Amino acid sequence: MSEAGASGVRDPGLQPERTRLAWRRTTLSATVVAVLAGKSALHDRPSAAGIVVCALFGALWMAFLAVAHRRIRTLTSDGIPPALATHHATAAALCAVALAACGAALVL
Amino acid sequence: MIDFARNLRLWFAPQEIAEEGRTPDYRFSLANERTFLAWLRTALALIGGGFAVDQFLPDLRWGWRVGLALALLAAGVLCSLRAVNHWVRCERAMRRGEDLPVSRFPALLSLAVAVVAVAMVVVVLVRGNA
What we know:
The structure holds 2 protein chains of 2 kinds. Chain A has helices at residues 15-41, 48-76, 86-107. Chain A is mainly alpha-helical. The radius of gyration of chain A is 18 Å and the shape is elongated. Chain B is mostly helical. Chain B has helices at 2-11, 14-19, 26-56, 62-96, 105-129. Chain B is elongated and about 65 Å long. The N and C termini of chain B lie far apart (45 Å).
């Protein structure tokens, strides 16, 4: 699958696979951050506000997961994968920005 | 900064990039994508560091704790925004057949991380003596 694209040319660099794994690693990093964020939201006694913020972190993590999942599905399909769409890249980065913004609000 | 504003439009308008120049070898695009993801992971690590400082150093004075956490979170935000910006610039340069853009950001980021690390060392030493 990854060895020969639609053109039948073998890709010795396994580029789509490496890119897929890079998305996996990034998802893993996002998971760690989301868990840390959720923990600090519920740090001192879980309050209503804390639970709302925690749910927000969960939603941001899901949003990132959705972007990563779509891209991984594109990369695993046969043929030469299209370049990453700009709005997907922006969405992934904005998830990170939103996590940080919520974190800053939480810290203050 | 003006460049940044112009690129900002491209972040949300994929067809504008696709119309320019010609499509490069897909492997180059994928390499660019992996670089973007590596920067995004760096940003996520900085953000995670911010949360960790806030959470695992509860004995620290409020000012230091909040200052360090906010510095790390802000670095993470900058890093992720810059990741998209650099990705867009590289993608466009490849389509036009230009040289890849150079950047001062890696040097600035490493300086910022070094400053935060020194601040951490100072905080730990001061607390150890107190």
